[in-house]
Amino acid sequence: MKMMHYVAFLLVIVGGLNWGLIGLFNFNLVMSLFGGMPGVESFVYILVGLSSVWLMFTHKADCKTCAKMMK
User: Fold this and answer.
1) Domain parsing of the chain, residue ranges
2) Buried-state track 23-40, b at ≥16 Cβ within 10 A, e below 16
3) Distance from the CA of 43 to the CA of which of 16, 33, 53, 57 falls in 20 to 30 A?
4) 16 closest CA partner among 4, 29, 33, 34
């Protein structure tokens, strides 16, 4: 589970940075990296979305800071 949390966290960070780049500079990092492979690009977006759902439901149990706040 720890590895799943780590991977999900990294994918959510990638998604957040991508949205920040789109908002600030109209630059889509995922499209620029995988634009020639639309299937891979869609897969990355799906993984980022699934990662956010995963973290939404498991974050409190995995995060030491959140666990301390809930006590």
Assistant:
1) 2-62
2) eeeeeebbeeebeeeeee
3) 57
4) 29
φ and ψ at 26, to 5 degrees?
Answer: 55, 40
Per-residue pLDDT of the chain (71 residues; tens, 9 = 90+): 778 888 999 999 999 999 999 999 999 999 999 988 999 999 999 999 999 999 888 887 777 777 776 66
Residue that the structure tokens 């589970």 belong to: 1
DSSP-assigned letters across all residues of 2-16:
HHHHHHHHHHHHHHH
The pTM for the full model equals 0.80
